[in-house]
Structure formats: structure tokens, C-alpha cells
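Question (not urgent): is this output format expected?
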Amino acid sequence: MPESTPNLKSRSEAAISAYEDLGTRFEENDPREQYTYMYSKLRSDYTLMERVGMDGKSVLNVGCSFPIDEIYYARKIGHWTAIDLSPQSIEGAEQILRRELHPDLAAKFTFQVADACDLPFEDGTFDVAVSMSTIDHIPSPEGRQKAVDEMARTTKPGGHLVITVPNWWNPPYALGIWKMTREKTLHYGYAHLFSPIEIRKMAERNGLRPISFASSIAPLDDVWLPGYPAPIRWGAKLEFRVHRTLGYLGRRVGYAFEKPMR
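Got this back:
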């Protein structure tokens, strides 16, 4: 049954309030100290970003929160624009980044308060647009689609989008999120759980072409060495194929998309 507008509005207000409160406590909650979180990011977010290439690129990060991605990619990127709806999050993220990075690296970054559903940038501004566990906090389906539309609009033809989301095909994780939502104990207010099919279709509505899938439990590509005996190579290929299929059940899933040239 479709949710009523008042319910969506109350959810939106609750999510923003919870998220703004989180933005004032970055110093207390450094995600780099959570090794399971970092493992998930490496296997999903950063795997996709490496596959599209980040060296010297202009990057838009939709929903920056704690500047973990900014700090990680500071040496590689050309310029990085981080946006967030929460002024508290933007202020806290910029303070942490400028404290931890050398001024020459910190100069590569711009922090800006902005709405993912109405990005204040011209068409085709960025080489890469990324959104990592962000659009799932937008309460309405129309808003989530609009955020993807805006990322596509502001990406250059031939550029790439990287989008990762929480996965409702992972039953233990989905049940935990639904329980916390029902009990109003979810620390960031609201989360929509996607399927891999849903997020792919949202991007394809903009003519984007999926070029790579990644998951928090999927294996990397071709990690065995050349020269291994044929039975070992074949066995490894079969095992990796099975694990890639199981990757669709990962807690965090996402795609790298390419925007076609006009």
C-alpha cells in the first residue's frame, strides 16, 4: 500500500533530525575504527571506484557524512566536491579533513550544503558521481529516483556513476533494519532497502549502462596467478563464479554505471 504524504513527511523530518544529530558527533564515531564496516566498503564501494578509475578525475560525492572517502582518495583525485543536506555534517566533515590532510591535498576538496534531489551544478560537470549508502535515507521513491536522475544529469557523457545501497536480499540485515525502524532505534532515522535489480533499473531509466557489480561478500576479479595447473585454474574459476552469484545476497551491493556519449 502506498504511504500517505503526511507519513512520508514525518519520516523525512525524523530522518533529517537524526542525521543532523549524527553530524555533530563525528569525533565520537570514527567509522575507520570499525573493521567490519571498512571491509564492506573495500569490497563494494572502493572496488567499484577502482574499476572506473579515479586518478585525476573530478568527483561528486552525494552524501558525504564522515569524510572517510575523501581522505582515502585524496592522493588520487583531481578535485572532489562533497555535498550533504545537513550543515552539521558538512561542517564536521570539512573540519576533520582539513585537520588530517596536508594543505596541498585538502585544497582539492569543496564542501557544500546541497539537496541530492536538486543538485546546484550544471549538466555534465563531473567525471564521476558517487553515492554510497546515501539515497537509501530518502523516504520517498520519487525522491530516490530524482537523486539518481540528478547524479546522471551532472555527470559528463562518457563518465561514470557509482551507487551502493543496503540490500533487502540479505534477510538477517533486512530483518534487523525493519526491527530498528519499527522500534524507532535506527540511529540515522530511516533506511530504504533495495534489491540489486531495483537500483540497476533506477539508473537504466537515465540511459546509464551497468558495467560492474560489487557486493560486500563478492570476490574480486582474477586473483589467482598465471601459470597455475589447469585443474586449479578451473576450480578457482568455478568457485569464483559461485561466490559472485552469492554476492547478490551481500549486505551492501552496488553498480558502476557508464553514461553514454551523445
